[in-house]
Write a structure and sequence with these properties.
32 strands, 29 helices, single chain, alpha/beta, 5 domains, globular
Length: 1032
């Protein structure tokens, strides 16, 4: 854009529109002086109330467990919000310009470097939407045939072609799928916290690019309109909730000082006139981001935004179609749709599915909250389905660097903190004589880095300063008078501070990646993508609230919030809320993702048709409830005969089925209608709800076991039968396996963001490059050695004593293959830290001197192979379709034990034994907030190396179970289940291998240390990988 055009646009900018909630005027403030004349102090100032509460604190807080920590104990606090008055913000801007204050520059670097990529991902677009258009000669894409394994060459295409990149994620998104993917056309960005917008302006520029035409033509841009608003929140706004944030068509900025707000928006429009506009009329035709402001207290602003909920100036409908991830009721039968949670915000948005909202919370502001406050704050933000949140988090762990950053040599930070003390004093007692009470003259600045709990602490230390010798006699105990104020809950009083007493005024928590993931789990957020600065000390995390979510049970421990997790035994009887979440996940998979056209197909020839599993889960549940209560089966009773137990044929000879199984209909017309099965499922669910209504709080151990067994049967997958079928003992995950073999014909998963595999792969490449520098070039090829030792495996859980044993809420239930707890010998060995990746397996496969037929036998079923075979284009099957191999090379490879065994042998190793892998997993637990489990991602991800920071994280598997070389055989102390005979014993056939860990489709509940899974070694369709072990 030319300079003259930019100047012209700058001159066109009208005064910023600032909505004043105090007089409900939505007229533009004509000048800063007019803005400053508006009354900003409510009758009862909630910040003053909070200040008094903090000063009256009596409970001693010791930030740690050492003697050094005791020296920093405190009972009183001053709110951080007093630091951010008009003068404080000015001083803060000076801080950001110092060389020592790294957080500002680190986040600015991320936005400058990856702003285009971030802007695209915020609104669900592929990162290629803003990449420079370039021809990609020889670049072929899979043809959208609808077949999960077939592929054909398509005509060469340019990388920037929106018909390829935006609508099917083909070249640009790294995805091959038969269903069209429509881009977002209207975006709303909401920033929590405004300031000078010096960093945000980089992101606004990138947003504006999304509005510009391609190839300098007059055609519409990728998006038609984007609105931006920044909201500054205070801590006392926790009780408020931002409902859906799809609220008004204006861009608002919430600020206590209207003059400062006016100045900021005016400056932004002046400097960035080519990409933003304060006009509410011409932002669409001029292709600029629309901004405006909101003037109010924080509570007023949040309440107003919540009340609006799309009432004011709705965005005009856009002609082009687009989709927004949400569970689609139109795909569900009426019974299921009616019983699902009807989120009002999501429902309201379905008529405007082209619009997506993204909340920005930059500046590592989350660090100013305690861990508990951060969790509650994020929980309180109700993201609508399909919306995102971008959170800046400081992960620096360098103590000296942090100390200097928060106590710069020039004393600017000290002035910032003491200015906050003055502001607090004026708020508390504006008429108090200078030098008295709460004022900067009576305090000095003290700071400390506490590496153990990962936060930088700032405190005011009352002291007797030499310059104030006149106060020597009277300042032994500092008196802070608190006058009475009409409407306040506090009467007139005095606060007494002892000489040398510390008052906490600010904290800045730092989060390792493991801690950030734990935070998101506790807040119900799923990580979509992450960006870091070049030093990898600061990150921007893009998250969402998915419709299906199984949070990590270890997240509280990682954040030091163990008390939050007390009282709930995650391995005991499931709660009714657990059931409801499981059913949402089941409906999402069986009704939303699997289209009607696949219900009678067999993507896995060894399995039943998918329709069988729709009826099997409720039938199995109903059968065992009827047995326990000695009650009739739910009608129609004959469904139990059809759906009770599936099949597990011998992989080598499918005609051999070595266990009893249901006789199912042989033709499509003989099966019950889908709607009948759904009605049956609804009735059985109601039966489970009645069980909880009648027995909650008065459980018997056997009933608790029945509920646990049928619950885990639905949620997971295994090769055993549990009176059902071998691979389908636990059917949610097994159904995923079936879906993967027809991945191009599925409905795209709803309620979660569509991944951008190219930018994810670029992030992985940067991470590996960083590891190569900091840990050495072969860090990801590292092995770990274990000496010979004895370990304990399993747990004590004998179901034969259920009738004679009282119910214990702390008891851990399991399957007969987990019982009893026992000791096993492990010889010395070495094992790779990370599992075998697709890239490693492909390189090995291509290097074998074998004929094509032999090579074909070694191709994993998880790969999508084109007509040219492994010599041509390859992909990896996911619920999103086929992901091109270049973007999945660092993912763990999913293959049969026999295939991986041959790979391991050629590498000079072998598959680990059951005791060896169990020992490794005791040091690197499969379950952690960083693990790809419980639908954290709907595909494998690169496994990660262990970290040794203050919150160490284990090596991860990337989202696959792990094979062992050990076959399933009875062990000393083994006793088959009396409740479910044959659960394990049916498979003591020397064909089934023990499998440990969990996959991305595994609910975290079953990824416990004692859990044992098993599959036939030749079975190729499960999500199982392997580490290579070596003799010591």
């Amino acid at each position: 854009m030319s300079v003259s055009a930019t100047a012209s646009r700058t001159q066109e900018q009208p005064p910023p529109l600032i909505l004043d909630l105090r007089n409900r005027s939505n007229s533009p403030l004509s000048s800063p002086s007019e803005a400053g004349s508006i009354e900003t102090v409510p009758p009862v100032d909630p910040l003053r109330e909070q200040l008094i509460s903090g000063l009256k604190g009596t409970e001693l807080v010791i930030p740690g467990r050492t003697d050094a920590d005791r020296q920093f104990g405190y009972t009183k606090r001053v709110s951080t919000m007093f630091l951010y008055g008009e003068k404080g913000l000015s001083i803060y801007e000076d801080i950001t310009k110092t060389k020592a204050y790294y957080p500002f520059e680190a986040e600015k670097e991320i936005l400058e470097t990856y702003g285009d990529e971030i802007a695209c991902r915020m609104f669900g677009l592929p990162s290629s939407a803003l990449e420079e258009e370039q021809a990609d000669e020889g670049n072929e894409v899979f043809e959208a045939t609808g077949s999960g394994n077939s592929a054909a060459k398509k005509e060469k295409c340019a990388r920037g072609d929106p018909s390829v990149g935006l609508h099917n994620y083909g070249v640009n998104g790294g995805l091959n799928h038969s269903k069209p993917i429509h881009p977002t056309t209207v975006g709303l960005a909401v920033e929590l916290g405004s300031g000078s917008l010096d960093k945000t302006r980089h992101l606004l520029r990138s947003m504006a690019k999304l509005l510009q035409p391609k190839n300098k033509t007059s055609t519409p841009g990728i998006m038609k309109a984007i609105e931006y608003k920044a909201v500054r929140l205070s801590r006392f706004a926790f009780s408020n909730r931002i409902s859906s944030l799809s609220l008004t068509r204006l861009s608002f900025q919430l600020d206590l000082e209207a003059a400062s707000l006016y100045s900021t928006l005016t400056s932004l429009a002046s400097v960035e006139g080519d990409c933003v506009t304060t006009s509410l009329q011409d932002h669409i035709p001029t292709r600029r981001v629309s901004v405006s402001g909101l003037h109010a207290t924080y509570d007023e602003g949040l309440a107003f935004l919540k009340e609006q909920n799309l009432k004011a100036s709705p965005t005009p409908a856009i002609d082009s179609p687009a989709t927004s991830p949400s569970v689609s009721p139109e795909r569900l039968p009426p019974t299921i749709a009616e019983e699902g949670p009807a989120d009002a915000a999501s429902t309201a948005r379905r008529g405007d599915e082209k619009r997506k909202t993204s909340i920005l919370w930059l500046g590592s502001s989350i660090g100013n909250f305690t861990r508990e406050e951060a969790v509650e704050f994020l929980k309180g933000i109700d993201l609508a389905t399909g919306d995102t949140m971008l959170i800046g988090i400081d992960g620096c762990d360098n103590g000296p660097e942090i100390e200097v950053a928060y106590n710069d040599p020039k004393g600017i930070t000290r002035a910032f903190i003491l200015e906050g003390v003055d502001q607090a004093g004026k708020c508390l007692h504006p008429d108090l004589e200078a030098g008295k009470g709460l004022c900067s003259q009576n305090f000095e600045y003290v700071n400390r880095w506490n590496g153990e709990i990962g936060r930088h602490e700032v405190a005011d230390k009352t002291t007797r300063l030499v310059a104030l010798a006149a106060y020597i006699r009277a300042i032994d105990d500092l008196v802070v008078p608190v006058p009475a104020v009409p409407g306040s809950e506090y009467d007139a009083t005095e606060i007494h501070l002892k000489r040398g007493e510390l008052l906490q005024i600010e904290v800045s928590y730092k989060y390792t990646p493991a801690e950030a993931m734990a935070l998101f789990h506790l807040a119900g957020l799923r990580l979509i993508q992450q960006w870091t600065d070049s030093s990898h000390r600061h990150s921007l995390y893009l998250v969402e609230k998915p419709s299906v979510w199984f949070p990590s049970p270890s997240a509280s421990k990682v954040l030091g919030l163990e008390k939050e997790g007390r009282g709930k035994n995650v391995y005991g009887v499931p709660s009714l809320e657990d059931w409801e979440e499981l059913w949402r996940a089941w409906d999402w998979l069986m009704h939303d993702i699997i289209p009607p056209s696949l219900r009678f197909n067999k993507p896995i020839p060894l399995r039943h048709v998918p329709l069988f599993y729709v009826g099997h889960a409720p039938a199995f549940r109903d059968i065992h409830l009827s047995r326990y209560f000695n009650e009739p089966l739910t009608s129609p009773a004959h469904f139990a005969d059809i759906f009770e137990r599936g099949i597990d044929p011998n992989v080598d000879d499918p005609s051999v089925i070595g266990h009893s199984h249901s006789e199912v209909p042989q033709t499509e017309t003989d099966w019950p209608k889908f709607e009948e099965i759904v009605e049956y499922e609804h009735n059985v669910r109601q039966r489970v709800r009645r069980v909880y209504e009648e027995h909650e709080g008065k459980w018997e151990r056997k009933l608790a076991r029945v509920l646990m067994m049928v619950f885990e049967h639905e949620m997971c997958a295994s090769s055993s039968s549990l009176i059902c079928d071998v691979f389908d003992r636990m059917h949610h995950e097994t159904s995923v396996y079936i879906c993967l073999q027809a991945c191009k014909s599925l409905n795209l998963p709803s309620g979660t963001a569509l991944p951008d595999f190219p930018s994810l792969a670029r992030f992985t490449a940067r991470q590996i490059a960083h590891e190569n520098v900091t840990l050495g070039p072969d860090a990801r090829k590292s092995t770990v050695a274990f000496p010979a030792q004895t370990i304990s495996v399993g747990h004590d859980d004998d179901d034969r004593i259920d009738d004679s044993t009282a119910y214990d809420p702390a008891h851990e239930y399991g399957w007969d293959c987990e019982n009893p707890k026992r000791e096993v010998e492990v010889g010395s060995f070495k094992i790779d830290l990370l599992p075998v990746t697709n890239g490693e397996y492909r390189a090995w496969l291509m290097g074998l001197k074998i004929d094509d037929e032999e090579r074909k036998k070694l191709v994993p079923a998880s790969w999508a192979v084109g007509k040219e075979g492994v010599q041509g284009r390859l992909g990896v099957k996911t619920l999103w379709g086929e992901v091109e191999m270049p973007y999945a090379e660092e993912w763990p490879v999913s293959a049969s034990a026999e295939q991986l065994e041959r790979f391991a042998k050629d590498k000079g190793g072998r598959l680990p034994t059951f005791p060896e892998l169990a020992l490794f997993l005791q040091h690197h637990p499969a379950e952690s907030p960083s693990s790809n489990l419980g639908f954290s991602s709907l595909h494998p991800v690169p496994p990660s190396l262990p970290t040794t920071t203050r919150s160490p994280s284990p090596a991860t598997d990337g989202g696959l179970w792990q094979w062992t070389s050990s076959t399933l055989v009875p062990w000393k102390g083994y006793v088959g289940s009396s409740l479910y005979p044959g659960y394990s014993s049916d498979f003591f056939d020397e064909k089934h291998r023990i499998v440990l860990g969990g996959s991305w489709a595994s609910a975290r509940r079953i990824v416990r240390r004692s859990f044992v899974n098993f599959y036939q070694g030749g079975y190729p369709f499960a999500l199982i990988g392997a580490r290579v072990a070596y003799d010591a």
